[in-house]
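Hi there,

I know you've been waiting on this one. I reran it after we fixed the sequence typo, so this is the corrected version. Both the input and the resulting structure follow.
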Amino acid sequence: MMRFCFLVVLGLLWFSLQGPAFFQNPLPEPDIDPKDRLHWAFIPPQKQVIPALAGPQENLQPIDYFLLEKLRASKLDFSPQASKTTLIRRLFLDLTGLPPSPQEVEQFLNDRSPDAYGRLVEKLLASPHYGERWGHYWLDLVRYAETNGYELDQERPQAWRFRDYVVRSFNQDLPYPQFLLDQVAGDLLAKSLLLPKEELSAGIQRNPRIEDGLIAAGFLRCGPTHVVSGNLDPDQLRQEVLTEMATSIGSVFMGLTIGCARCHDHKFDPVSQVDYYRLQAFVGATYFTDAEMSSTKVKKTAEEEMTRWKKQTAPLKKTVEALEFAVQARLVKVKIDNLEPGAKAAWNTDPKQRTLEQHKITGLTQQLVKVTWDEIVEALPAKQKSERDSLKKKIHELERRKPQGSAMAPTVFDRGTPSTAFLKRGNPKNKGALVPPGYPRVLLGAGVTQKFSSELTRIDLARWLTSPNNPLTFRVFVNRIWLQMFGSGLVSSPGDFGIRTKQPMHLPLLDWLVQDFLESGGSVKRLHRQIVLSRAYRQESKNESPLGLQVDPGNSLLWRMNRKRLDAEFLRDSILTVSGSFSSRMAGYAVRSPLEPEVYDLIFTESEPVGLWPTSPDETEHHRRSIYLFNKRNVRLPLLEAFDQPDTLNPCPVRNTSTHSLQALTLMNGPFSREMSVKFAKRVMRDGGSKQGKQIELAWMLAFSRMPEEEESALARQFLQNQEVLLRNQPSLGNAPAKAPGPDFSTPQFQALADLCLALINASEFVYRP
């Protein structure tokens, strides 16, 4: 006993002497090459002076001076300004993600005042749709979804609160430094705002900033997560979570592929494996939780609603289970009887009495006696099957109206001291020294020695990221905004500012924009205003200058505007808008619109594949903006997937723009497109009157924000005439639904108009931002 006590005391003494040194002493890591420190992206943004230009400089913005300096050096100039119809469509799609209405186009065209364009810009920046459009891009970056991913892809209750926080933040023009701080450390900030002895739930009622902080910190759990993990090792699962959080911070805010240093020093960038684990240490004490946000009274009411719902569903489910159990037991017995004698004997032996060999046999033959749901349903007698189907329908309807429960914030919290173990080769089973939080050395500058301390928290990390001297954070963000507006970034690789990324041609412009962005306090709306008021943004995109194509075929100098295909979600939203079906309701629970059978079959389940997608009961909800659709990682709508909606496994700084036959097939023949083209035609017939010419004009104005040219009108008339004749001879080819209400909507004339509307939403002019 004395010997045991002596060893314990000796161990404590060793830890007191060696432990702190073990924790604090830096691990061996390679020196940083001085040349790497001179990489343009690792040097803080330099103060820039707007270039002076000779000659006329009417209506130029600071952005234009930087661009014109390089254009004129190549004997180029900006293209002529785009037409007003092009500008209004471009502005609406870029700032709100929606096309303008004919009334808005007419109002802008008739406004001859010199500040008409500027007032339109301010109107769109103040639109609630602005936050939806730009929140959509941020959700791409953070991999937002409402399920956990992996095989089971289980739902994350109330994950939509993070989506609403992002939309709200862009609409309120929340300063970007605060936006970043909320997402990296919002839970810690919320805790610091509490009064002494105040509970978190009570604090939420008192201070909306606490609520936003908790919700925003959900950024750290936006990535895919193993929840039902079977026999996966706890250390492995924990390391997956830490990797997701650390890699997201490095990718989203720093524009570095820092996750490549998890198993070894980065192959290209001066980021050591120790640097990686220092960054990971900031989240080493961070765990997932759901914070209650409702008052006691509201929570009680929600619980009572849920109790009533369960009382309604429980008897129905119990009856279904009883119907199934008898059939299942009989089928299992039949399968056991068909096994070989040894296996049959093993299964018929009480599990408690089985020998080791019999346990082995039952394990190996388990799949042979497993009964599928299809087998159970097929074996049910007709009367019981009918009864079961009726009960299942009632259960499904109840599931569609299931109470949402009290308000919860999927968030995080810290427990213990921030630190993490250095993993040799990234293996959770090969742990080395504990690593305290710290910043990548190459970003601190030569001669700067940081103090590694377990007292550093995610708040410190966020403040370091938002420091004006941080070389990456604001360059990365400003470049992301520029990329979305112009179709290509000032830095060509928006997700990688590392060594392999060459110094951009327009680095002075980028640094000036960063400087202006910081001086404005990080106002995203001001940044957008600077861009859209520039001559560069207002250029036409159709210019095919021989000199421009020869000198700068890739348009790096921006001598013309770039056309840009609409993101998949904005394409869907535009179709809804022109058809008159668009629902402008914002925020709240996600919408489940109906799925096509082949898409429904993709939903994984270990139980019966019934009721896996309870569609929203209110059909008008199905026509809300795409940002409000239920975002399931393993299931995407065909239209969105065809037009390159990204998966949510990795941050997406820029979407692919592919061209393939499936896009045309989906947009022309998909049920959504055909349904919306019928509604589009109804709107045209209703609002355009009975004259064909007026209908064509309205269709063009809705689809393209302009009047048709004479040749286009003639082609449209010819198409309608030919299509009407074809449909009279072959009525089955019509696009209108068989049971369309009213005689006006069942004639070949209307069906031809619906086909014309379908053709318009398939046109490149509709699919692309000019």
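Quick highlight: The chain is about 50% helix and 5% strand.

Best,
R. S.
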